[in-house]
Amino acid sequence: MKNLFFALLVMLAAAPARAETGLATGGRDVVITREVKGRVVAVASDIRLEALVAGDVVVWGGDLSFGPSGSVGGNVWILWGEVLAPRDRPLPVAGSVSTPGSLLRLYLSEMEKAPWDEGARA
Known about the structure:
Blueprint: H1 2-14, E1 23-26, E2 30-32, E3 40-43, E4 47-49, E5 52-53, E6 57-60, E7 64-66, E8 71-72, E9 76-79, E10 83-84, E11 97-98, H2 100-111
Parallel strand pairs: 1-3, 2-4, 3-6, 4-7, 5-8, 6-9, 7-10, 9-11
């Protein structure tokens, strides 16, 4: 089952990540030293950002760390890994950071609402 999810994620993530607009990797740690205009997807890999990633960053089974100029213009999704925040500045992510724990909290908060309550998601 885990291999099926792995294969599905790689296929979905790699298709839109063309060389000129994004990056997809599996099993190889990557250091981003030039701006990436699209998304970065890594499976079983660590990512170190030393430059801007204008899109989203998805890391499954690895860690995401930031250098002095590293930042994310979109959202960050981390599954089975950690976000290692820079020590001298706030987390440089323009969008949201989603981890299994944050998604669980969102799910549980929605379960406490009745579908007809204002603000409940359909």
